[in-house]
Every structure is written in C-alpha cells, then in structure tokens.
Request: fold
Amino acid sequence: MATHHSRIAARAMMAPAVFLLLVWMLVPLILTLYFSTMDYRPLRGIYECCQGFDNYVRFVTSSSFLESILTTLRLVGGVLLITVLGGVLLALLLDQPIWGQGVVRILVIAPFFVMPTVSALVWKNMFMNPVNGLFAHLATALGLQPIDWLAEAPMLSIILIVSWQWLPFATLILLTAVQSLDSEQLEAAEMDGAGALSRFGHIILPHLARAITVVILIQTIFLLSIFAEIFVTTGGAFGTRTLTYLVYQRIIESQNIGLGSAGGIIAVILANIIAIGLMRVVGKNLDA
Amino acid sequence: MKLKHAFWATTALGLLSGAAFAETITIATVNNGDMIRMQGLTDAFEASHPGIEVEWVTLEENVLRQNVTTDIATGGGQYDVVTIGQYEAPIWAAQNWLLSLDDLGADYDIGDLLPAMRAGLSHEGTLYASPFYGESSMVMYRTDLMAAAGLEMPAAPTWTFIREAAAAMTNREQEIYGVCLRGKAGWGENMAFLTAMSNSFGARWFDADWRPQFDSEAWANTLNFYLDLMNSYGPPGAANNGFNENLALFQTGHCGMWIDATVAASFVTNPTDSQVAANVGFALAPDNGLGRRGNWLWAWALAVPASSDAPDAARQFIAWATSSAYTALVAEREGWANVPPGTRASLYANPEYLAAAPFAQMTLDSILSADPTNPTVDPVPYTGVQFVAIPEFAGIATQVGQIFSAALAGQVSATDALAQAQALATEEMEAAGY
Amino acid sequence: MARSVTTRRKTITTALAWAIGLMIFFPILWTVLTSFKTEAQAISDPPVFLNFDWTLENYAVVQERSNYLRYLWNSVALAVGSTLLGIVIAVPAAWSMAFVPSRRTKDILMWMLSTKMLPAVGVLYPIRLVLIHFGLLDTKLAMIAILTMINLPIIIWMLYTYFREIPGEILEAARMDGAGLRAEILYVLTPMAIPGIASTILLNIILAWNEAFWTLTLTTTSAAPLTAFIASYSSPEGLFYAKLSAASTMAIAPILIMGWFSQKQLVRGLTFGAVK
Reply:
C-alpha cells in the first residue's frame, strides 16, 4: 500500500527519535556495564578496572537480593490489583448518570497531579503518623489502639500510597473504554434477562480487556522504578526494599559504584524479561 | 536625548562591572533550625562582604547527604560550601576532596575551638571543616512529671534509674510515655543512639582485628535493654521516630524523658515552640558503671570542596559563619539561647550565655565527657563515638539500623536481629577487604 | 443513551460517586486546609476541620525562606520545554509508525519502552559524569533533554495508538486527490490528530512536572524545580506539618489547576489504544 517514496520518508521521520533513544540508552548502559566490572569505590579512592563478574556474583548471592525481588513483585502486584479492580468499579460508577459528574471526575483524577514526594510526605506525616496523624486521631476517637502504619503494615502502606496516585490513571483509561461500550448491546442483554453480574462478565469485562492490559503495561513500567515513595516513608526498612531501592543503597549509601552498577544491569535484565513476558500476553490484545 | 543615552550607558557599564566582580557562592546545608537562622542572616554577610552573593540549597538531611556526596565523589563542583559532619570530614579530606581551612584569618581564632570538635574535623592535623554547631547527647526530662512520680533525677543517672523513672512516668491513657528514643533506621538515626548506648554497656562494633561484635553478650544486653525499655514505656510507632519526630513528641508533652542531641535543649526550652518549656531538666547520658557513658559527639561543620570555583569567597563565608562574631550577631537578633552551641570555649565562659541558657553547662559537660579516640570499654581499632570512621560504615550501619528498627517494630526477635546484623557486617567487611 | 434511569437510582449512584470522589480527594483538601493552620492546630486532637483561625503565616515563612518563584519558573520551563521538544521528535516518529508500518514497527516500539526499564539510580553516575564532562550540570538545557528522553517512549506510544485510530481511507482519499506528503500531514492529518496531541502534551507536562529523581540529583539552583523546593520542607526540626502543607500546596497547585482546566482535553486522548 505504502509507496517506496513514503517508506523512505517514514524512515527519515523516525530517525531522530530512534537515534536519540539509542544514544540515551547506549551511553549510560555501556558506562554502567563498564563500571559494573570495576572495583569502583570513590570514598576509598579505589577505581580498579576489570574485576570480571565479581560484582555480579556478590550482588546476586547477597541475602538481600532475592528478598528485594519478591518485595518488588509484591509492590507492583499489589498496586496493580488495587488500581485495576478499583479502576474498573470506579469507571462503571462514573459512567452512570449522576449529578455533578464533571466535579466528581475532577475530584477522582486529582491525585494523579500530585508529585510522588509530596504525596508520600503527606500520607506519612499527616495520615499514617501513629501519634499526630489523622488515622491515629480517628482510631483513638473510636476507642481503638492507633496503628503504626509504616512499621506494622509497611508494605500495605506503601501500596496504598502508590495506588492512590495511580488509581486516577487507571480509572481514566478504563472510563474511556467503558464509555465506548455499545449501550444497545447491553440493553439487549438486559432484555434477554441477563443479570448484572452476567452482563459484567460476558459483555463489559471482555470489552475492557484491552484497556486493562494497557493499564497493566504502562503502570508496570512506572511501578518497577518506584523510588521516592519508599525513600520518604520507610527508607527501605521493614521489608520494603525493592530491587531499585537495593541498587540505590549500594550506589548512594554504600558508595560502591561497581556493585550498584552490577545491580542496575541485573535490574534491567529482569525488567526486560518481565516486559517481554508482558508483551507476549499483551501484544495479542494490542494487535487486533 | 544625549543625556538619556549617557545614563543608559553608565547603567549598563555599572551592571557589567558589578557582574564581573560579584562572585556567587552556592552553599548546601541541612534544614535544621540553626542553619535556617544562618540563611536568614545572609543579608548581614553580604553587607559586610560586598562582591559576594550567596545562593542557598537547603535540603532535608538525607537528600542533602545524597546530593553532596555524589557531587563531591564525581567532582561536580556544584557547591562552594557544604555542610558535613564529623564522620565525613576526615574521610573526604583523605581523598583530597576538601580544601584546608587552617588559615581562616586572625579573627577566626582557631585555638578557641573545643579540642574534641577540632580533632574530629581534622585530618593529619589539618582542619578541613569548621564546626558550625557541636553537640553531644544527654537526658532531657520533664521536671513536673518527675516530681509527680516522686523521683529525683541525679546529675549522672544510670540506665537502671532511667528504666525505673520511665516506668513511673508512663501514663498511656494521657498519652504520656516514659521515654522517647530514636528508632528510625539510619546510621545517623537509631544507630547513632544505639552505638553510643552500646559503649556504656561495654559493647563495640569491631574488635582489634575488625571482626564485627554483634554476637557478643554486651550487644545482646544493649539491644535487649533498649527493646524492653521502648516496648514497655516508649511511644507507639517508635520504630519510625528519629530526632525530629521525637522533638515534636517532647515539645507537645508526650515524653517523660528523651535522650538525644544537646542542641535540642534550646528547642524544648523555647516557649514559642514548646508547650513544656517551663518544665525541662537536663542530666548526663546514662551509664552502667563501666566507665563509659551513652553519649555521642557530633558537629555539623562547613567545608569547601576542592572542586569549588570560588574557594576564597567560600572561605570568607565559613570564617564569618563559624566565628564568635556570628554568635554575637545571632545573640543580638534572636537572643543568647538561640546561638549555635558547642564549638567554642569562649561561649561557655560568656556570663550572658550561661545566664540565658540553663542547659549550657550540661551541654559542655556532655561534650567534654565524650572521647572519640577511645570510645569503648574494650580497645578498638577505630575512632568515633557513635560511628566508626571508615567509609563502609554508613552503608553497613544503615542496613543494621533497618534490622534493629524491625526488631523494635516486633518483626524480628532480638536474637535474630543480632545474628542478621553479624552476618551482614561480616559479609560487607570481608568484601571491603578487612 | 436510551437507558432510562429512575431518580432513585440516580440519587444513590450520585451519593456513592460523591462519597468516593471526596474520599479520594480528601488528602489534598486536608493538606490545603492544614496549610492555613498554626503548627499547634495542625496536630491538635481532635483535629480541627474548618473552625480554626485561618492564617497565611506558613506561606509567608516559606516564601521568606525559599525563592518560590524561581523554583516555579524552573518547573514550568522544564515541563514545557521537555514537552515541546518531545512532541517535535515524537509526532513524526509516531506518524510514520502508524501510517507506514513495517514488520519491525512493533519491535521498535517495544524496544523504545524498554529504555524506560533501567533504574534511574543505576545510571546516576554515568549520566552525572557525562554532564560534568560537557559542563551541563544544573542547566535547564540538560534537564530538558533528560526529561524529554525519559518520557519520549511513552509519548511516542501514546501518539502512535492515537494516530492508528485515524481511518486510513481518509489518507487514501487525500492521496487520490493528489495531495503530497506535506499537504497530507498538514491539512488532513493534523486537524484530526490535534486532540491526541493535546492530550499527549498534557500528560507529558504532568509527568515532567512530577519527576523527582533526576530533577533532585542533577540540579542545585539554576535548574532546580519544585521537587527540590519541597525537599527543604520535609522533616525539619520541630513541628512542621503546617509549613510542609503550605509548601506542598505551593508545589502542586499550579499543575493541579492546569489539570482541572484541561481535563477534558487530557481525557479525550488518553486511551493508549485501549478503545477499539
């Protein structure tokens, strides 16, 4: 269909983006690969090249490595679960005729505009603080023992904070999908006596499959690199150290650049494995 | 018309020459009260030093450390003056990352610095960071609650007394907790406290061969005592409380006792911020009769990175901000109780200061009783009271701090926490080549 | 919509939707309210909701300590700059992927997304060293370039999915009429693509505004945006909830207001091919 001419033009139009992304990927990647084979500890004045795979072996065999991967999966999985479930329900609700729909929609999407640092600070101090936080006040008012959220349920707390930020995004995408649903089809089903649940399972959910995969894909990309929320709230304590945070500790807190770089490379490899797996599943859904 | 042209020409010239001579220095500092006060006095510095303009980068402690360390390790040259502590100064100086501050001018009077402060900020006898304020740690307590409990705080309490008093002062119904201590993970947070405390229990980080000592009985005693004390008489959520959180708790009347930095004394006795200002007493940090107290030694200090492009202006600023004249300036504007403490002997000989600051003598006694070169009961190969002055310490101690913080939150037992700490420290020390 | 709805049902759904909406919005509302309290009122138990002495003191303190306008200007410059640059690069790329697809188009797209997988802190040292080498540390230019590259994969993808929904027949028709490539883009595609581009721009501004790792580690003063501003108000000594709230409000207000005014545009194009 496309002519030879337009093919060449198309390549030329893609070239800048491809070239820039290639540079943006390769330069840091090659330097990081190089550092990852070095014994690079500036605080000791050590900059020795070519240690082979020592850093990789150390990073992978350290006791914190496996735990950090599980933590990452727990965090990403938890947030995805909450935002997708919540997003679907919220989208269906907002699709109903309600008074002041515009205002409600504004209220719901507002958290998406809040920078992660701010939202983590606000949640940590003003809500989850066990003495001066609002949740603690609420608990004492009800005669309950206040919960120390970030120590007693650290993972849940962080998942809640992150979900709060990403729920609007999921809701918006799912809402657009819900709105594109053919209402006549739904009505027909209703006439045939299909209950609400069966309508949801047979018509709405299949229709939303594509939107859900999109939400999962995009959020996963962002969630794998979650940093500010952990840095501000627990600093990686209480089993909230994700792979990204572990790399941070190696590079910034221990100033062991070689070890941290090896961790960074391992993180890219793992993230890409997840991504490729996701693409395989999602890809089918996206093609159509 | 001509006149107007001439006017614009001279103005432009004036701007140009102004731009040519004005040197801008970028200062990175922590968002602590004394530093914010310093930032507020920028006008005074710029007035007395025409030609130098000051840019402030005021950040929360963790972010500051991360940014400054990265910048200095990569030679970024983004800062002309950096705020660092006694832990960083000698290590960075050894890498030639800092410029010498031995010659800050006659007015600076280097001999007036408290010896412990000067020693901790020097490397091979040369001063590399000038102390802005110095601190030790001590017991701050509520005199009213202590009296109501029918107890009297000795000037130099023991840990046993602290536990007894905490038990007597705790009143959970009224949200009054006998003792508030650091629990938040971090080498400068809970580990500063626990390391200093462990000294008084006869524990140490490493033996003479750099073998970690968390498997020792002394460390077990330290951690068990701390956990028991906090679980029985501490505030809820202690595992997330650092200096700032405890300060807020104490100021709002939730703590009977608080063992922490001596600089806190001026905050808790300041009636505008503290609801308990009138009822605060001070005592030396506790001991166990083993010859060492559980108090630390720390200074926030100003240093010039070797990568600075305005080293002379930076030195002038440091000489100004850490001089006795600066102290007098703060006293004039904000009162003597608010001057940065703990760096100079002359301050503690000043009757006006001693009159305005009821905590002055206790601060000085605490500072003088800490010995960074000989911090523990048993001999050790390192210096530093609440830290170990080796580059690996921050990384190791932050992770150990996370384990101990989890122990305080009840997620691991004390025995497991110590075993994990021992394994982790051993692994890291071996990897570092010890 | 032919579905008839009883008033009763509408009342129930309205109440439910409002309740949930207010719950989600509450943390922001609470932050804004707290910013007008004194420090003592900010932590008072029981909490005060509206019946307190409103004060602007916190804003005055924050303004006195930090040059808010400079941080704000830097945030605007970085967000808008990186968005415009990104759009200029992304639109042609996404156009050619959508309308002249090849066998490898999907692979290229996935590869682009995979460049977002490298954890930022892992490449902090390399990026810093490169910037230092070129003397670009703490410059808006460098930050704009970095933010552009970070978000480029997402905006290419977003535009690509949007362009793909533009029916190909229209292009065919235009070609039949003998329109050249340029005319095709200018007169046929652009008008149809505007909503998608507008939405992409908005999303990119939000992402760039809220980016908090690079903007915090690679800037000091002249390129430091609001993310650095907020870092000087987190956990200082003493009571700080009210001041933190004031600073937080100042940091999020501009983007929140922009978002509210443009939410229709944002929503219209924010599909990522989710609707078919």
